[in-house]
């Protein structure tokens, strides 16, 4: 997708889409009344009335999509398990993945992430102007996820293109070109899985192919969906989280200096960046006609779970509009709430912490280059896609 | 002071384990539980309160 330039996000609580009229025109419903933290929580906790079948809003309703692709996995599995799954299937599909993302498995990856971050900065050369999104944030999660799933690192640009297509394409035309891209992605991942069936590797793809659910091996369609999920959900979310954090630090020299002088404060600051600039809004599908807190909902309506808005609810957070990098009470919902808590949250946190730590160490002083434009993604994942920085000091 | 993780509420955000590893541990699935029957050694009370204040699912309680 071609990058569109939109102005900076100024309202994180009510602006679901800060720039694209196409997004608002095509989305089925945005329940503006339902953005308070307790309502977001109530929806997240109620998979019976709010299904996860389509966590990203699409133009077609699920019943229409099924007519186009009868092989697609319907409820309760969904096309990309477990994020698209509902109980009771969900718990089993999720349990398969949880051990691979537990903190004790993820924490030891710190050194690898540090190496990735340092190399990206080395590759920038001795310049005093960089685009931190293009040259830094966008690469970190792609390289980490590719390594986990066992995909060649040299194909990283292709995955990123697909992520853009899937997540950024809500308002896009259902064009021939888009279908061709989907086909190419399908072929690529199918080949990747076939190669792993023939030659098992020590990676997550082989782990999934070997895993069993209800006493049977996972279907290739299930493995395909989960790999696709890891690529889509693991990449531009974290890329956005790192980007928004660096954008904040470029615009707030006091906070930047505090973290440069005291890197031990970075983990708390990361939680505040996650609260204030939560990158992800998920969607749920209404399972039956009903009234919910006075809002009439129809079967197959989409409901957004605006975690960024919930994170700025004044009933939940003191001074929610203030970004306080030492905020002590911080029950933010950036990784969701309830049974679908982001399974990659430990990995995302590790990547954010290391990315910020390394960046501040190598570039202790930087600021936004105001002669260039900061651009932001559209759709349900929000973060900077261009971050022009002037580098003023090197560590 | 004692802490307790309600395992029916815990969704594995792992905030408690990150903030107070002296008081909490996690199993292979990433679900948290309290160590040492939840007894908070003196000097770690603030860490216990911090864990409570950062649990998105309100799964941790403190008994004085």
From TrEMBL, chain B:
Keyword Electron transport among record annotations: yes
Pfam families: Fer4_15
Signal sequence interval, chain numbering: none
InterPro entries membership: Fe-S_cluster_ET
GO molecular function annotation: iron-sulfur cluster binding; metal ion binding
Keyword line: Electron transport, Iron, Iron-sulfur, Metal-binding, Transport
Listed PANTHER family: FERREDOXIN
Protein name in the entry: Unannotated protein
Source organism of this protein record: freshwater metagenome
């Amino acid at each position: 997708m071609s990058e569109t330039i939109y102005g900076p996000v100024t309202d994180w609580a009510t602006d679901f889409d800060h720039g694209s009229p196409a997004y608002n025109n095509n989305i089925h419903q945005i329940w503006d009344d339902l953005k308070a933290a307790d309502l977001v929580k109530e929806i997240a906790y109620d998979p019976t009335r709010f299904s996860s079948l389509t966590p990203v809003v699409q133009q077609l309703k699920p019943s229409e999509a099924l007519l186009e692709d009868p092989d697609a996995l319907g409820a309760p599995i969904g096309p990309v398990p477990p994020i698209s799954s509902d109980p009771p299937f969900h718990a089993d599909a999720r349990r398969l993945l949880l051990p691979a993302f537990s903190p004790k498995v993820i924490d030891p990856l710190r050194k690898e992430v540090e190496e990735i971050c340092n190399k990206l900065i080395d590759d920038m050369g001795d310049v005093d102007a960089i685009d931190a999104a293009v040259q830094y944030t966008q690469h970190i999660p792609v390289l980490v996820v590719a390594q986990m799933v066992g995909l060649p690192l040299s194909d990283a640009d292709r995955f990123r293109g697909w992520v853009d297509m899937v997540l950024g394409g809500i308002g896009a035309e259902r064009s021939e070109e888009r279908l061709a891209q989907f086909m190419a992605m399908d072929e690529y991942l199918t080949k990747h899985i076939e190669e792993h069936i023939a030659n098992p590797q020590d990676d997550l793809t082989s782990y999934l192919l070997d895993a069993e659910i209800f006493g049977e091996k996972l279907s290739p369609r299930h493995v395909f969906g989960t790999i696709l999920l890891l690529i889509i959900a693991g990449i531009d979310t974290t890329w956005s989280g790192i980007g928004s954090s660096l954008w904040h630090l470029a615009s707030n020299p006091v906070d930047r200096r505090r973290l440069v002088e005291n890197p031990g404060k970075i983990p708390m600051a990361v939680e505040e960046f996650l609260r204030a600039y939560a990158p992800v809004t998920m969607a749920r599908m209404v399972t039956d006609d009903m009234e919910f807190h006075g809002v009439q909902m129809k079967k197959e309506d989409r409901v957004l779970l605006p975690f960024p808005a919930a994170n700025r609810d004044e009933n939940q957070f003191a001074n929610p509009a203030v970004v306080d990098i030492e905020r002590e009470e911080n029950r933010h919902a950036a990784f969701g709430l309830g049974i679908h808590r982001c399974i990659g949250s430990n990995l995302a946190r590790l990547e954010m912490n290391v990315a910020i730590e390394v960046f501040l160490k190598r570039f202790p002083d930087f600021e936004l280059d105001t002669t260039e434009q900061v651009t932001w993604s559209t759709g349900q994942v929000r973060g900077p896609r261009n971050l022009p920085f002037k580098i003023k000091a090197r560590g | 002071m004692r802490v307790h993780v309600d395992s029916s509420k815990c969704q594995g955000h792992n905030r408690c384990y990150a903030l107070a590893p002296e008081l909490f541990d996690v199993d292979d699935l990433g679900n948290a539980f309290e160590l040492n029957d939840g007894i908070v050694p003196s000097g770690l009370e603030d860490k216990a309160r911090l864990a409570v204040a950062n649990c998105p699912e309100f799964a941790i309680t403190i008994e004085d």
